[in-house]
Amino acid sequence: MKLSKVLSIAAIACLGLVSTAAAEIKLSKAQMDEATEVYFDRCAGCHGMLRKGALGPNLEPEKMKGMGTDTLKYIIHEGTPGGMPEWGKSGELSAAQTDLMAKYLQVEAPQPPEKSLADMKKSHKVLIPVKDRPKAPEAKNWKDYFAVILRDVGQIAIVDGVTKDVVSVVPSGFATHITRTGASGRYMYVIGRDGKASMIDLWMKVPKNVAEIRTCNDARAIDTSKHKDYLDKYAVVGCYWPPSIVTLDADTLDPLKIVSTASYTYDENVYTREARVAAIIASHDKPEWVINIKETGQVWLYDYSNIKNPKITMVEAERFLHDGGWDLSKRYFMTAANARNVISVIDTKEGKLVANIPSEGNKPHPGRGVNVDHPKYGPIWGSGHIGSNDIIFIGTDPVNHPKNAWKIVKKTKLPGDGGGNLFVKGHPNSPYIFADRPVHPDRKLQTQIYVIDKNTLEVVKTLPIDEKYLKPAKAPNGKEVQARGPVHFEFNADGSEVWTSIWGNKLAASPILVYDSKTLKLKKVIDDKRLITPTGKFNVTNTMNDTY
Ligand code: DHE
Hints:
Elements: H1 3-12, E1 18-19, E2 26-27, H2 29-47, H3 61-78, H4 95-104, H5 117-122, E3 125-126, E4 145-150, E5 155-160, E6 166-171, E7 178-181, E8 187-191, E9 196-201, E10 208-214, E11 218-224, E12 234-241, E13 244-249, E14 255-260, E15 263-264, E16 271-272, E17 277-282, E18 288-293, E19 298-303, E20 311-316, E21 321-326, E22 332-337, E23 342-347, E24 352-358, E25 370-374, E26 378-383, E27 390-395, E28 408-413, E29 424-425, E30 432-435, H6 443-446, E31 448-453, E32 459-464, E33 473-474, E34 480-481, E35 486-491, E36 497-502, E37 512-516, E38 522-526, E39 534-539, H7 540-545
Antiparallel strand pairs: 1-2, 3-10, 4-5, 4-39, 5-6, 7-8, 8-9, 9-10, 11-12, 12-13, 13-14, 15-16, 17-18, 18-19, 19-20, 21-22, 22-23, 23-24, 25-26, 26-27, 27-28, 29-30, 30-31, 31-32, 33-34, 35-36, 36-37, 37-38
Residues 45-46, 55, 149, 151, 177-178, 193, 220-221, 278-280, 322-323, 367-368, 422, 487-488, 535-536 line the site of heme D.
């Protein structure tokens, strides 16, 4: 059930007309339902379900009333240089919806629903019992499969990394966000923005979902237990709403435990109901998940060895933690507190914060980031920024390269002003790092791939995308909408190829482009009418091993 429907039952059914005395804005129940749904789909990720702000600013009604309907309409239509998309101009919101949202922001937000283990169990389905699943892999190349997010149609395409065939398209949650594999790689675990978790069995000749469950109403992260004593035993979902950590059985997705993350900000000790779970990464050395609690600025080290009575070390880091990944040794978790322009470094061996490093750019957004064993600086980890053109590299080896440890050893610039970068990615067998810029407003800058040499750490080449791969599509308002440029990169298992996808409109398919990671030649265009809005791509071997 869509969130707005849940909300309408749980919270707004009895409201009829909602109004604010000061601005005298009145919304009917139907308008409130529509606006709540649009807010959940488009706005809550950055501004929070309770509108208190995180990556995007606070949008609480008192502040919004001060801005007024016309100003809000203008911002929603045009976007902002800080990274807010041009919702109206791009045709994704109609003029009527833009007007509605400008008004909705000036009335009180409905209270989103809670969820218990019993609620979750109602949606739990084991579609194919363990005993009926294959006993051995039925396909040769499964360890080089890619799970490709088909975002706006809520599906996952499984693409063979060797033959480049789309071997299966599997349904998933609404606006599916990411996938991660278990330690053995057999299952691909998927999380939708609606909190629906599902698992795809890659051993099947035609991979299918074998279990699914709706863990929460809003989620972004999923991972599994990767410690040797718990291989493929547990999966974990991080929820935005209700803010919580949900542990699941990794074979069946049976829900085992919910832990609320609502708590106090690390610095001011202010109670925060909406303390959302952002990135989760599994330790390979300890039975531990490393979990970003966005609003409170803590990284939780969640010991899952006693699942009913978990031990949690709450490490103070910085506020508005978002994404991040391992350093080369997989001891240090490098993570972005993006609204504070800080990279926090967590030592997972000692269970403590090592450093909060100013990122020297605007809104760091690493994804998992990129690792390089550099001839001069030693092991370094890199990130780009959404709001500026800085790519930074931080030394991560305090033993052999103590002078460089936890310092920015090199900063390079993407050409042209402004940010727009979302992801950087590398592989030990590639001489290059690849960077995208899909949210840059300039068409030329948005539609290029930026190639960074691993030795000089400078941009040595840009690869423009041929217009024929950027097919426009008709938006519901009749306007022609261009596909955005390339988004996100993933390598094949041996690192000889790097894949990127064209972030198209959901009304038309858009391709995956496969480049040779050494010669930078376009080797293959995977053009399949089922590839609608392909965004994130996750190779089985690289995801199992956390290679980036
Ligand atoms: Fe993501 C990772 C949250 C929008 C594609 N994104 C993450 C993570 C978080 C996050 C917390 C880290 C997960 C982890 O590692 O466990 N993303 C959010 C948002 O809150 C945000 C900003 C707004 C929203 O409403 O969801 C958002 N993300 C997007 C997109 O619009 C992207 C570009 C396209 C899409 O398909 O949704 C997108 N996010 C991704 C991808 C990753 C990701 C591909 C994983 C990167 C990797 O290489 O591991």
